[in-house]
């Protein structure tokens, strides 16, 4: 009897010890803005083995995203922790694949979807990336009932529901709204050089020249992954075309032969004359780091960079770094929304829905977005939890023209985006405006 109790006690201690040093995903170190975040193409990282109870009970949720490393991972891990608090019996596998904007993750996902091996749920941008890739291929489950059952229909802005819907069905749940047309800048450099935030493209070019003359690197770019340069170009398109015609570009009503597209390309060329020399070997975190550490004045980045500045570099918003809308787009909000849906063919749909419920909840959204730099997708989230940047972005989202991002999957199909990224990459080195326009036109006609 005593032997039996001792054995039981030992097993218990062992189990507790295993859980304690086992797989809490919080032990994952962040990559501190180094290349580590992009170099790891090695598939999936399992950062949580779950506990003994999980295997018995609720099954497993495999969450697929590209949120690893600096400025990306904290928010996801906090959301996973919240989920685990609420569902200690469900195992979580964090299957994140490194590489900004899904550079590597999208390829891994495509292979898995084609091979009938979908993750339980995956990060996908609302708009074309969701609808024209996965929904059109009939690989996603409609989620209308999920929205009804959880009373979500009036909890998200209509524009977002539209982005995650096709032919009357809803296919995913938005976790956030990022803004893609943001310039972040080093406050000290601006002050020392007596620079005001530029609001037009002409003012922007003047500021770039002024900084260059003062011996400062005006603009930090890290286009080791081409999407960061594509992002600058899409903001220039928005600036020269205006919100309505920028949108018309994606439905073919405005062509790439439009003079204003050429104007955007000319500006792109000018601006590229002011970037750091080593731009091709840096990723977005490395480029943002130049601004944070006072080695460059500004960078154009989606506001995930805000998460990076605040959480990873410990910089204070409006003290160390400031922000303004990309010049020429002050009335516009380039929408980048990360969403999660339910692929067809997964075994444990009900378990996965439990995760999506937490992701869709006010608490889930506030836990995630206060760390990510984005604003909550839900309209009824707790505004008091957000700093000045967050509340400003919420206000702008309400008042500005909303435009879909090309670089982040919403505006056009993945095949077209891949081509644009390739052409942008060539343009950055060759800077041949005619050739660039021709190639864009050709890509658009396919
Ligand atoms: C975007 C994504 C953001 C952020 C960024 C950089 O596509 O929507 O959440 O992760 O890429 O990786």
UniProtKB/TrEMBL annotation:
Residues 26-55 have a biased composition (Acidic residues). InterPro entries: Bact_solute-bd_prot1, SBP. Pfam families: SBP_bac_1. The keyword Signal applies. Residues 1-22 form the signal peptide. Keywords: Signal, Transport. GO terms for cellular component: cell envelope. It is found in: Cell envelope. Gene3D superfamilies: Periplasmic binding protein-like II (3.40.190.10). Residues 25-55 are annotated as: Disordered. Its main location: other. Belongs to the bacterial solute-binding protein 1 family. Part of a binding-protein-dependent transport system for a sugar. This is Probable sugar-binding periplasmic protein. It comes from Gracilibacillus boraciitolerans JCM 21714.
């Amino acid at each position: 009897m005593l032997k039996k109790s001792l054995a039981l006690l030992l097993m218990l201690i062992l189990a507790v010890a295993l859980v304690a040093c086992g797989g809490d995903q919080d032990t994952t170190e962040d990559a501190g803005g180094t290349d580590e975040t992009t170099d790891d193409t090695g598939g999936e990282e399992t950062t949580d083995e779950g506990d003994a109870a999980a295997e018995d009970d609720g099954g497993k949720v495999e969450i697929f995203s590209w949120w690893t490393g600096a400025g990306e991972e904290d928010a996801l891990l906090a959301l996973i922790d919240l989920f685990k608090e609420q569902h200690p019996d469900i195992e979580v596998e964090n299957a994140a694949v490194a590489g900004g904007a899904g550079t590597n993750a999208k390829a891994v996902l495509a292979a898995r979807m084609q091979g009938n091996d979908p993750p339980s749920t995956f990060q996908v941008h609302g708009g074309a990336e969701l609808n024209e890739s996965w929904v059109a291929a009939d690989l996603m489950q409609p989620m209308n009932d999920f929205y009804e059952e959880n009373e979500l229909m009036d909890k998200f802005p209509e524009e977002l529901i539209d982005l995650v819907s096709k032919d009357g069905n809803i296919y995913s749940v938005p976790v956030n709204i990022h803004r893609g047309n943001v310039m972040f800048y080093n406050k000290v450099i601006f002050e020392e050089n007596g620079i005001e935030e530029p609001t037009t493209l002409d003012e922007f070019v003047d500021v770039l020249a002024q900084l260059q003359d003062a011996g400062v690197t005006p603009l930090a770019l890290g286009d080791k992954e081409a999407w960061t340069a594509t992002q600058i170009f899409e903001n220039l398109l928005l600036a020269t075309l205006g919100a309505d015609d920028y949108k018309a570009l994606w439905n073919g009503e405005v062509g790439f032969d439009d003079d204003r597209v050429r104007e955007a390309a000319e500006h792109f060329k000018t601006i590229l004359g002011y970037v750091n020399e080593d731009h091709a070997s840096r990723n977005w975190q490395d480029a943002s780091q130049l601004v944070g550490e006072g080695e460059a004045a500004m960078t154009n980045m989606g506001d995930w960079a805000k998460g990076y500045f605040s959480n990873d570099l410990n910089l204070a918003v409006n003290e160390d770094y400031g922000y303004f809308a990309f010049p020429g787009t002050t009335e516009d909000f380039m929408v980048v929304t990360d969403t999660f849906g339910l692929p067809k063919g997964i075994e444990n749909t009900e378990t996965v829905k439990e995760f999506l419920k937490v992701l869709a909840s006010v608490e889930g959204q506030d836990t995630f977005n206060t760390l990510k730099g984005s604003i909550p997708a839900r309209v009824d989230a707790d505004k008091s939890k957000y700093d000045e940047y967050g509340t400003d972005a919420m206000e702008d989202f309400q008042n500005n023209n909303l435009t879909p991002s090309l670089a982040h999957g919403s505006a056009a199909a993945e095949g077209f985006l891949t081509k644009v990224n390739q052409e942008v990459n060539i343009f950055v080195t060759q800077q041949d405006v005619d050739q660039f326009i021709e190639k864009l036109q050709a890509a658009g006609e396919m």
